[in-house]
Amino acid sequence: TGRLEGKVAVVTAAGQGIGRATALAFAREGAHVLASDLDAGKLAGLDGPSIATAQLDVTDAAAITAYAQAAGPADILFNCAGIVHAGSLLDASDNDFDRAVDINVRSQFRMIRAFLPGMIARGGGSIINMSSVSGVPAGVPNRFVYATTKAAVIGLTRSVAIDYVKAGIRCNAIAPGTVQSPSLEERIRAQGDYEQARAAFVARQPMGRLGTPEEIAELAVYLGSDLSAYTTGHVHVIDGGLSL
Ligand code: NAD
Questions:
Q1: Keywords in UniProt for this one (predicted)?
Q2: Can you tell me which atom of ligand 1 is nearest the CA of 176?
Q3: For residue range 97-131, what is the model confidence (pLDDT) as tens digits?
Q4: What pTM, to 2 d.p., does this model score?
Q5: Long-range CB contacts (< 8 A, 24+ apart) of 62-71?
Q6: Which residues line ligand 1 (CB under 6 A)?
Q7: Complex ipTM more than 0.90, yes or no
């Protein structure tokens, strides 16, 4: 039997990349998965006996409330949605900053607020928040807004963990290094010289390769499952050695 047999798992940004790989891994491990994304088109092909898909914008508070009400109680919540702003402090506008806080951080506040009461009523749950090694523990150039929001995720994670530990809730963060995903591919292409830009991303990974969404999904499965019952409030780094 799977490691998530009988569990209900909610995954945001499940249309592509790490979110999609995780929705598939959760389903493979026996969970009933509620997979959502801003872009409904990206959810194509995910629907099936163990995955129900829906369009959901994690910045839309009313939509999140309605989604959670329709979903009912969940055992696992994976807050995967996030965007990358490329640039240093002097490259960032107020709007860039606000947008990133909204999508990368406030979204997690809103999703947890919507699903936590159901978890508490059930006597437990596992919340997994997407951070990044650029938040902690590494310093990554030209990721000012991104790193600021991904570090905020860690404070959010610890606070939820300590406040609800007695209610059986665990809350952990995942901090990946560079992972091959559609948006990473876009960031590489945006730099002009494709081969050179890709080589630069690979060069900062001591293992000499990028991570795969499936490798990150395995960590999410572990954190969602009862096998990780003794860990809460921590950042689980999975970065190919980037932060060494
Ligand atoms: P991606 O960036 O390729 O895809 C992101 C998905 O998020 C898309 O399907 C998009 O439609 C969805 N999305 C965007 N805004 C949304 C919103 N408002 N509401 C709901 N969904 C929305 O996927 P990825 O690169 O695997 O990134 C997933 C998460 O992992 C992000 O939080 C990212 O910051 C984090 N992360 C990625 C890497 C990496 O190298 N790829 C490294 C560390 C952390």
A1: NAD, Oxidoreductase
A2: 43
A3: 999 999 999 999 999 999 999 999 999 999 999 99
A4: 0.98
A5: 64/110, 64/111, 64/114, 65/114, 67/36, 67/114, 68/111, 68/114, 68/115, 68/118, 71/8, 71/10, 71/34, 71/115
A6: 12-13, 15-19, 37-39, 42, 56-59, 80-84, 103, 130, 132, 176, 178-179, 181-184, 213
A7: yes
